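Input chain follows. Return structure tokens only.
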Amino acid sequence: MIHSLHDLFLTDAAATIAAGESLAAEVRAGDVIALTGGLGAGKTHFTKGLVRGLGGGEEVTSPTFTLVHEYRSGRLPVFHFDFYRMEKAGEVTDIGWDEYLDAGGVCVVEWADRFPALLPDETQWWSLKEEGGGRRLKRNPG
């Protein structure tokens, strides 16, 4: 890992997980982390690291078909969303989005760019893009 936590070149899945672990030291209850990037960009690996960095022991998997996974064994609960298969913003609110935002955990949203209007103004936006045999993780302005 090079540069800063705001712009990293990640050589492999292990580096992507390590970046998520690093971010875990900075997150607080109520934080929302929006992840963008194509299929296979590393969004779920990043979330694995975040959960691990918070002390969570659960196996982290993509919530593509279940829409949300809850990981509650760490210092903060993590609510892991995937907006990829959602067609309308109403589908997000129907699964209890507002309640999750108020639950005192960290909301991590894969494919957050599908419904950006649903995310709070203070959301941390991160992009993962393939680059030169690895991927680039960047923190983007909200």
